[in-house]
Amino acid sequence: MPRFNVEGADLQTGQERVIQVDAPDAATAEQVARDRGMLVASVFESTARPQLGELDALAEAARGSRGAAAASPSPALAYAAPVQLPALPDYFGLRVGRTVLMIFAGVYYAVGMLVLGLAIFNSGYLASQRTRTALDTAALLLMLLYSFASISVGGLFHALSAACHALRDIARNSWRT
Description:
Blueprint: E1 3-10, E2 16-22, H1 26-35, E3 38-45, H2 54-62, H3 68-71, H4 92-128, H5 134-173
Antiparallel strand pairs: 1-2, 1-3
Helix pairs in contact: 4-5
């Protein structure tokens, strides 16, 4: 049976393809290529002479004939045994430290926001009063200073909590190779 080269493009990807088809004539080779999902550009008889080699013997074995390739299956691959990784330490102290520091950060954030709210309310109240003393202004400034300091300390505790979390992750990842 003659062998034909079919040139064209893949219908799905558009990539150029060249395949060889064994067919009785060019029209049948073109139909086989279309059935394989090709947009056919040209069909011509192959100039390469088929040689009965190792690939042809494998093709014969795949078609169901009993050849040398079908009698001897390829050997199984030897895979390495799975490696058991050591158990990762938990670093319980860093987990507890992270949680406690985050609780302290939340408390300081809440107190700072509460005092800031009271300072804003107090400034509105003092603005509505006709008389204001220097002591009222000093108390308002102290409330604002305390609220900003409390929020800043909350931020410090928050950063320390994040540092505990990062240190635990670094320590646990150092066990992996």
